[in-house]
Amino acid sequence: MFEHKKNLLHPVKVEKPNPQYAVLMQEQLGGCNGEVKAAMQYISQSFRAKDKVFKDLFLDIGTEELCHMEMVAETINLLNGDKVDATKVTSGEIETMTTFGLNPALINSSGHPWTADYVTVTGDLAADLLADIASEQRAKVVYEYLHRQIKDPYVQETIMFLLEREEAHNALLCEALNKITDDGSNRNFGMSEDSRLYFDLSKPRRYFDDPNPQPVEIKRDKHSSCCKKKK
Amino acid sequence: MFEHKKNLLHPVKVEKPNPQYAVLMQEQLGGCNGEVKAAMQYISQSFRAKDKVFKDLFLDIGTEELCHMEMVAETINLLNGDKVDATKVTSGEIETMTTFGLNPALINSSGHPWTADYVTVTGDLAADLLADIASEQRAKVVYEYLHRQIKDPYVQETIMFLLEREEAHNALLCEALNKITDDGSNRNFGMSEDSRLYFDLSKPRRYFDDPNPQPVEIKRDKHSSCCKKKK
Amino acid sequence: MFEHKKNLLHPVKVEKPNPQYAVLMQEQLGGCNGEVKAAMQYISQSFRAKDKVFKDLFLDIGTEELCHMEMVAETINLLNGDKVDATKVTSGEIETMTTFGLNPALINSSGHPWTADYVTVTGDLAADLLADIASEQRAKVVYEYLHRQIKDPYVQETIMFLLEREEAHNALLCEALNKITDDGSNRNFGMSEDSRLYFDLSKPRRYFDDPNPQPVEIKRDKHSSCCKKKK
Amino acid sequence: MFEHKKNLLHPVKVEKPNPQYAVLMQEQLGGCNGEVKAAMQYISQSFRAKDKVFKDLFLDIGTEELCHMEMVAETINLLNGDKVDATKVTSGEIETMTTFGLNPALINSSGHPWTADYVTVTGDLAADLLADIASEQRAKVVYEYLHRQIKDPYVQETIMFLLEREEAHNALLCEALNKITDDGSNRNFGMSEDSRLYFDLSKPRRYFDDPNPQPVEIKRDKHSSCCKKKK
Amino acid sequence: MFEHKKNLLHPVKVEKPNPQYAVLMQEQLGGCNGEVKAAMQYISQSFRAKDKVFKDLFLDIGTEELCHMEMVAETINLLNGDKVDATKVTSGEIETMTTFGLNPALINSSGHPWTADYVTVTGDLAADLLADIASEQRAKVVYEYLHRQIKDPYVQETIMFLLEREEAHNALLCEALNKITDDGSNRNFGMSEDSRLYFDLSKPRRYFDDPNPQPVEIKRDKHSSCCKKKK
Amino acid sequence: MFEHKKNLLHPVKVEKPNPQYAVLMQEQLGGCNGEVKAAMQYISQSFRAKDKVFKDLFLDIGTEELCHMEMVAETINLLNGDKVDATKVTSGEIETMTTFGLNPALINSSGHPWTADYVTVTGDLAADLLADIASEQRAKVVYEYLHRQIKDPYVQETIMFLLEREEAHNALLCEALNKITDDGSNRNFGMSEDSRLYFDLSKPRRYFDDPNPQPVEIKRDKHSSCCKKKK
Questions:
Q1: How crowded is residue D152: how many other Cβ atoms within 10 Å of its Cβ?
Q2: CB contact under 8 A, C31 and A3
Q3: What integer pLDDT is reported at residue C94 of this predicted model?
Q4: What's the average model confidence in pLDDT over A81-98?
Q5: N or C: which terminal CB in chain E sees fewer CB atoms within 10 Å?
């Protein structure tokens, strides 16, 4: 079960209202790599995780993403100011000014509503953890793009906090991937020659240097190295 | 900020796996009147609620809806059994058997993914509370339809619990509506004759008995009565 | 069956073309609280309404909403002017300038296409009437937001007409709700203690003053008061 | 403005309830080639039609499609019977049994909600009329597929009526296309050699017998022949 | 099977970056009448085309549309410039600046993601060819709208090339339609009086001059004329 | 530019028609982890890939995925048989029987149309390659689920071929990831303490054994190991 506390996981503020930048921030509230997506992906994966260890991981991170969702929403709320005025917005969505009355909503920066099509879940632990690692990387990239487009030091600080939390999640997810023994989508599915073919379908030049590429297998020792600590 | 506890708000179990009924239950996980919709609607409305009293209400109920989401998901998870086998499903969505690997996903009973288009938020307190009351009523109706189609006593008990919680939410929401003084969408917007016209556009018969219907205004005393306690 | 007359239900005009404001008006043509949504919701509910009285109501209002749809569309058409030129649009959707050739289309102000996910229908009369009342309130709120953002006196007049018609619809819908005897989703579904619980899940502060909230029941006398006439 | 009469354009009935076939019929209510799509496409095109002759055509046909929508919806309503029971449905959508309470809804046979993405409008008369002719042909094809899958003589009769109305619409639309003088997308846009090239990109065999295909132009005399009356 | 060559079907370049115009061009990459839609429609229709002649046609054109997709994407890529900066965009979608990092994506000019709802396929050859002819006409119209809104001579040249290719496709598609003998949706489906009725549902004025319109039939000799070569 | 050859990349056949299994196979044609998704993701990523080496990789694999799309579509086409008959389908989508006339369409097994929301592209090479590796893993999982549910030896053989090709793609993608020097989303973004925090938000138990988890960095030597060849 979930509980809520009124304080944010990490306080946020803004220098002054900035409705246009609020539109950009919507991308991390209701967008394809945003916090609602992250929360719903981890929580969905927890629904069937049989191993208590992984279920706990998905719920720890998923719950933190709900906290991030609140931080992004409050930042947007402050940036929106106090007046519905579409002339303050120079690109992107304007439903904030027509329908939502400045209330942060579950849409992206262009106004596309959040959809569960963003959430990847397969019930296969290795596949889902890989999806999560890739998702964290994309979320980090979007925060970098957003960071380059705002001068407000408080918003920058919030973005940096959220961006670096993705790093911490990668640490947890890689450790988790390392715990997986070779089952599920990792088990060798009887490799045939087919998995060793190379089709050079785009000419000219041949991307692949090795004339005989080998199929790979996702296994513990690979991923342990996948989580090398920094020097 | 949110926190999570491993125990469910209310325990759930099932008599035996029932993949077909799991498909029906998906409606209340990822459907238009389901628990994710309810949670996201209340939480979204909390993002801008200025009055701490209403913000607390939205968060109390929204957090409970997240707990309901877990209960529905766990019920589906148990009903799904342990084998991907589309032949066990005789109607409705089958992505559970093709993509999700028995993991409860954010789709409805026909496989339509959850979308934020289900969430109604306007930033106007009276309008949003009315939307919430109407949403609770629809959720109750869907649970009634589901209740009629399952014999499993444990699933019935879970459905009854969730159905009756909607009742409790209505009590809270009506009390909240009563607290609103006449501002926002309630303020008289300068009624003209236009709001007193009646267009009898579908013939034959005239629905409306009163030849001169009067416009209405949503105000405190009306809603206090709207929340009459039962005898 | 439907018939059409060339004159609008209420004439509309504009002071001069205003492509940017046309984008805002799209919200009430193809948006989540717009006229197509309203028309389709009432007409859908009429498809199964067994009681001729309610079927007539849904068709009277639904048909009027089709008339409103025409008024909004013609207003957008006039505001769009005569030249596809995206530079005239400073925020929101631009398909009007790339695909639709200035033809009013079924999209919202950000370009999201109209979807039946906006329509709420359950086949339960009480639930559907509540949904309609809440929908009218939201439509009214959106018109208020739009009214604040335009100086054109003719567009203002059209918005006021449409806004006040929502008031008239509320009068009809409340009277309808009053006619419902306690069946469908109104019948007492055997209240248990569960519907009297209160979960205080967001800390600090406790929203709910009553330590023992009571479930509510939607019944005639409540709603008759729900439709108090103005003094 | 629109008006409504209680009688259907053409009466419908069914031999007996058939919930599974009701699901198939949903395709022509809320599907991509269904009656709501047709109605919304013609009505949308009428929003900007400057020539009164074409505006009248779009409104005549669009209004008739609304009448067809009612006929399809009533047929589904009768086929749905009186009991929410998903076991009566053996494939396709089941929201009718979980959310809509047997009320015909704006979804297709698999449960995908109706979307304005189905509607094609460009503000160019020739392009829009061609789209309408093609749409009528698709609607006819879907009715043929549905006709093959039902034995109920009353449903067959309704399908035949609707199918043949598409024929009548084609007669009107072709006559309309014939009235267009060479403007809009018909005007010669300065043909260059580029429009005479032929790329034979799929091997083996060359589809095109003429080594030097000529570009075409949509013009009056072509379309007059396009609407040859039957012998 | 498909193969790829690094050179474009036709070279493209731009005078200088123009992020706002890149947004408009997105309409023909990921929009409802764009190149991905065209490619997917022809390729989908090839999946079941039994007659090798038509299968070849669908694959010749479908493959060319993939080449057009590349040309449009590269044009957008060049127009996007080298810096994520939403202030360079004055209307329409901004995910290019928030999520896609200047990478051309499968969205339209307002940010709506490409959807298979744009693709029309019925498995009926006549219906599908008519849909293709209508689609080419719409694509041509959109290119005309885009052409009017750009001064860059290189972009204009690319648009003209693509626009005129639609002409060539119409030549191929009409020839194909001429090859169809009267089967599929062309066969006479037993015309009754119903297909000769005329409902004059929008008043005043009667669009249709002929008091007794005749149903039409799509047959060879009609379409051969439908593809008259230019003088 | 693309070219097409009539032969499939790898021949497919089926023992006998199996319309129900065709519905399951739709998941890999128009589903979230299917071949159209894979093709569109690689091709989209190629649109901006500046380094010729990576652009070639994306196009080699993307083009192969188009070939896989054809193989899956032809398998579905053969399984669909020759008669539109919804009674042959016992769960999942039935538009194949109502609208598509047995033509394989871009929808998933429940009838949800393909959407570009499935495609992940960020313009950041490391993030996009990680997304591709994760996507291949999911595609492999779905093929495993499908393989368990069919006895037809020819369909099994096709599934195995496609499944093992994902393995080969992983080999290529890992080699590619190894080529990336630390830029883009890999560059150290100034790690602060924030990225070293651990929030234990789901109780009881603490997933993470290391009281002080370290942020990770995606760098060459890690990924080289990520692509260990099999013994």
A1: 18
A2: no
A3: 97
A4: 96
A5: C
Phi, psi of D203 (to 5 degrees): -110, 155
pLDDT bucket at A130, cuts 50 / 70 / 90:
very high
Q: Is residue B143 classed as helix, strand or coil in its secondary structure?
A: helix
Radius of gyration over every alpha carbon of chain B, rounded to an integer in angstroms: 21
Out of A18-27, C143-152, C171-180, D150-159, pick the least confident. C171-180
Q: Answer whether C35 touches E (CB < 8 Å).
A: no
CA distance B4 to A64: 10
Nearest CA among D169, D157, D133 for reference residue E215 = D169
Beta-bridge mates of residue F216: A229
Does the distance separating the beta carbons of F141 and B97 come in below 8 Å?
no
Task: Give the chain C residue whose CA is nearest to the CA of D68.
Answer: C1
Tell me, yes or no, if A110 comes closer than 8 A to chain F by beta carbon.
no
Q: Above 60 in pLDDT, residue B76?
A: yes
pTM greater than 0.90: yes
Q: Across the interface, do C117 and B117 touch by the CB < 8 Å criterion?
A: yes
If you measure CA to CA, which chain C residue comes closest to D53? C6
Query: What DSSP designation does B71 have?
Result: H
Q: In chain C, whose CA is at the least distance from the CA of D81?
A: C48
Contacts with E4 from chain A: Cβ below 8 Å: 201-203
User: Mind telling me how many Å the CA of E170 is from chain C's nearest CA?
Assistant: 20
Cis peptide before C204 (omega within 30 of 0): yes
Which of A146, A76, A143 is CA-nearest to residue A106?
A: A76
Q: Is F212 on the interface with A (CB under 8 A)?
A: no
For the segment E7-28, the average pLDDT, to the nearest whole number, is 97
Residue F99 in tokens: 């609208």
Q: Find the closest chain D residue to F114 by CA distance.
A: D112
Residues 167 through 186 of chain E touching chain F, CB cutoff 8 Å: none
Q: Does A22 touch chain C (CB under 8 A)?
A: no
Minimum mean pLDDT range among A149-153, B16-20, B70-74, E192-196: E192-196
Residue A40 clears pLDDT 90, i.e. is over it? yes
Interface contacts (A, E; CB < 8 Å): 82
Residue of C46, C29, C9 whose CA lies nearest to C118:
C29
With touching defined as 3+ CB pairs under 8 A, do chains C and F touch? no
Split at pLDDT 50, 70, 90, the class of B212 is low
Using the beta-carbon criterion (under 8 Å), do F215 and A167 form an inter-chain contact?
Answer: yes
Low-confidence ranges of chain F (pLDDT < 50): 188, 190, 215-231
Give the pLDDT confidence score for residue A207 in this predicted structure.
Answer: 67
Cβ proximity of E60 and D202 under 8 Å:
yes
Token duo for residue C58: 């849904």
pLDDT, one tens digit per residue, over D69-85 is: 999 999 999 999 999 99
- The span from the first CA to the last CA of chain D, in angstroms, equals 39
ipTM of the complex: 0.89
Do residues A151 and F154 make contact, with C-beta atoms less than 8 angstroms apart?
A: no
Amino acid at A93: E
Burial class of residue D100 (count of CB atoms within 10 Å of its CB; 0-12, 13-18, 19+):
buried
Token digits for A88? 């303050």
Mutate to test the interface with F, among A33, A162, A194, A198 (most CBs of F within 10 A): A194
Cα distance between residue F44 and residue F62, in whole Å: 9
At residue F3, the 3 state secondary structure works out as: strand
Distance from the Cα of E37 to chain F's closest Cα (Å) equals 11
Question: With an 8 Å Cβ cutoff, are A175 and F134 in contact?
Answer: no
74-103 in chain F: CB under 8 A from chain E? 74, 76-77, 99-103
Could you read off the pLDDT of B38-66 as tens digits, one per residue? 999 999 999 999 998 899 999 999 999 99
Which of E40, E94, E100, E103 shows the shortest CA–CA distance to E68?
A: E40
- Dist. CA C108–CA C29, nearest whole Å: 7
> How confident is the model over B166-175, as pLDDT tens digits?
888 987 888 8
